[in-house]
Design goal:
Layout lengths: L12 H13 L1 H4 L8 H6 L7 E8 L2 E8 H7 L4 E5 L10 E4 L1
Parallel strand pairs: 1-4
Antiparallel strand pairs: 1-2, 3-4
Length: about 100
């Protein structure tokens, strides 16, 4: 069976080749960032990032992310929370808010 992988270098080798080159040019920054597959959010949970944002918290040694209405979170977001996932789209809105 020749099923194409959902994500990763086997699925998008040209993209990952460019990411590898970018990380090699910026070794210090590359320690802070990673490429992640968004299949769970987009295909399984059907998250609409234009309407929803992930809010992440640390809970008893676990990282927990809940996706909530963007308008509600942006209206109540405090200064001690920062964006930790940036989109690659036209609206420029944060995809995931994390505690600092």
């Amino acid at each position: 069976m020749n099923t194409k992988p959902a994500c990763g270098p086997e699925r998008d080798p040209d993209f990952f080749e460019e990411v590898d080159k970018l990380f090699a040019r910026h070794p210090e920054a590359s320690k802070r960032y990673a490429v992640t597959c968004r299949r769970l959010e987009l295909e399984i949970l059907k998250i609409d990032f234009k309407k929803q944002v992930g809010v992440t918290r640390i809970d008893d040694g676990r990282i927990v992310t809940e996706f909530v209405d963007r308008d509600t979170v942006e209206a109540t977001r405090s200064a001690h929370h920062a964006c930790c996932e940036w989109p690659r789209n036209d609206d420029g809105k944060c995809n995931k808010i994390c505690p600092e």
